[in-house]
Write a structure and sequence with these properties.
- With 483 residues, the protein is mostly helical.
- It has 21 helices and no strands.
- Helix 15 (360-379) packs across helix 16 (383-392).
- The two termini are 16 Å apart.
């Protein structure tokens, strides 16, 4: 079920009313209702895959109980391996089996060895990368002694499948979200209002910015050889804002929806495009995933408490794995590796005091430019296509910028109408202005500080802008659904 669908528009208020009017007095009924609503939400896409999330939940609940009652370190480690094997095994089969088989066949063909193999054609279950990591945090933290397992399977199953963040995060830790299922929840009007504000802001980012920009991005990235210079640069810039507004928009809607039901989810984005270094960018972008890889991959590898070569290797390896997590394509591997290499270099130069000191504006411009260039690999269909796009960027750029006629011709090649393009730029300007306003606090926190007439004026402005400029006719799913 998509947040930006008519179905969800009916599902959310109905679920909200039943939750607070029918089952609010009993904690177990609340959790049972959340579980049922979450399975309906997920099963709306394809009910057949409900068995996967139920199986993963059952295995990790059992592993948590067994580890808690077992004092033998070797048996506890074996139980942890069961959890890792089941969760990563499911992820490997459904997400990577066809990818690695196709890569192997391509490699053998390149060596002159013909194969008659065929890929399995497995459908990727929506959200599997998110909920497997969420359940893994539960068993790993129990193994490390940081968490006491819950003895209530209903509570645990509801925690794993919680519908606001089930499909695309934030990836919650059991230490943060699970205790919220174990205590009574009461309606809080102030929290509900903040939730609705975040939903409004998230919807604005998705349907007005992300879905509008996707048209221009698809035009250029769908036919990379047909474009050069400014259109390629603009499409890449637009994709940077498209993916940010798409994914952070989802996170805002998820966090806001959770608040309607009395839950607090972690912040997943903090205006990352205002960062002045790659390190700062990754402390602001997809925070739930970045901290997950830090705690469960980077630190176990040795983190920065190792020799310089080993520390740099740990950084690059973590980002390489992170890239592969994003998708079964070599483009994601290259994207992750590129970020890992340059973050390692940046951190090393900072460590030895050789990182050049430049004005803040130039640090921001360099960081933002590098992030945008790396997005080319993330968005392109293949590594070769990504290099084609990068090579096409400087071609004809000077002639396009030196003449108004050439500029207009180049823009006409990838925009539909001048009016639509103007509205898109105006929408992007409104978004950037509000984003700058929220550089240190999120939308809901900022709105608390606004005088009531001004707050309602902004509500109406965003609602009007969505109704008038929103791309509702596209029914576009969220980008991170594919991961």
């Amino acid at each position: 079920m998509l947040f930006n669908s008519f179905t969800f528009l009916l599902f959310l208020p109905l679920t909200f009313l039943i939750y607070w009017q029918v089952v609010q007095r009993n904690l177990r009924l609340q959790n049972l209702f959340v579980l049922v609503a979450s399975y309906v939400f997920y099963g709306w896409w394809d009910w057949r895959f409900l068995g996967l999330i139920a199986f993963s939940s059952a295995v990790d609940f059992w592993v948590g109980q067994e580890m808690h009652h077992n004092r033998n370190p070797r048996k506890k480690k074996a139980l942890l391996m069961v959890s890792l094997g089941v969760n990563l095994g499911m992820l490997g089969v459904f997400k990577y089996a066809d990818f690695f088989m196709h890569s192997l066949m391509a490699g053998l063909t390149g060596l002159g060895i013909e194969t008659s193999w065929t890929t399995l054609g497995i459908i990727l279950p929506v959200g599997i990368s998110f909920y497997t990591f969420q359940t893994l945090s539960y068993t790993i933290d129990i193994y490390r002694g940081k968490l006491q397992p819950t003895s209530d399977p209903l509570t645990f199953f509801a925690f794993v499948s919680f519908f606001p963040q089930l499909v695309a995060g934030p990836i919650e830790r059991a230490t943060h979200l699970l205790p919220q299922f174990e205590k009574n929840r009461h309606f809080d009007f102030a929290q509900a209002r903040k939730g609705l504000e975040l939903i409004l802001w998230g919807m604005f980012k998705k349907v007005v910015i992300a879905d509008r920009l996707s048209v221009y991005v698809e035009t250029v990235y769908g036919s990379p050889e047909a474009y050069s210079g400014l259109p390629v640069m603009l499409a890449t810039l637009f994709f940077a804002f498209q993916i940010y507004c798409d994914f952070s928009g989802y996170s805002d809607i998820a966090i806001g929806t959770a608040r309607l039901f009395g839950f607090d989810l972690m912040t997943n984005f903090r205006t990352p495009y205002f960062s002045t270094s790659l390190k700062e960018f990754w402390s602001r972008w997809h925070i739930s995933l970045s901290t997950w890889f830090r705690d469960y991959v980077y630190i176990p590898l040795g983190g920065n408490r190792a020799s310089t070569p080993r520390w740099m290797f740990n950084t690059m390896a973590t980002f390489l794995v992170s890239g592969l997590w994003h998708g079964a394509n070599w483009t994601f591997v290259v994207w992750g590796l590129v970020h890992g290499v340059f973050l390692a270099i940046e951190s090393y130069l900072r460590k030895i005091g050789r990182l050049p000191k430049v004005p803040v504006f130039f640090s921001w411009a360099l960081t933002f430019s590098w992030v945008c260039l790396a997005w080319v690999f993330f968005r392109a269909d293949s590594v070769s296509t990504a290099f084609t796009l990068l090579a096409q960027m400087p071609v004809d750029l000077l002639s396009q910028l030196s003449s108004l006629t050439e500029l207009e011709i180049s823009l006409r090649t990838f925009i539909n109408t001048r009016a639509e393009f103007t509205f898109t730029l105006l929408s992007l300007g409104l978004f950037l202005g509000l984003e700058a306003w929220m550089a240190k606090k999120d939308f809901a926190q900022r709105m608390v500080q606004v005088w009531k007439p001004g707050r309602w004026s902004l509500y109406y402005l965003l609602a009007f802008w969505m109704i008038y400029f929103g791309a509702f006719n596209q029914s576009a799913q969220f980008i991170y659904f594919q991961f």
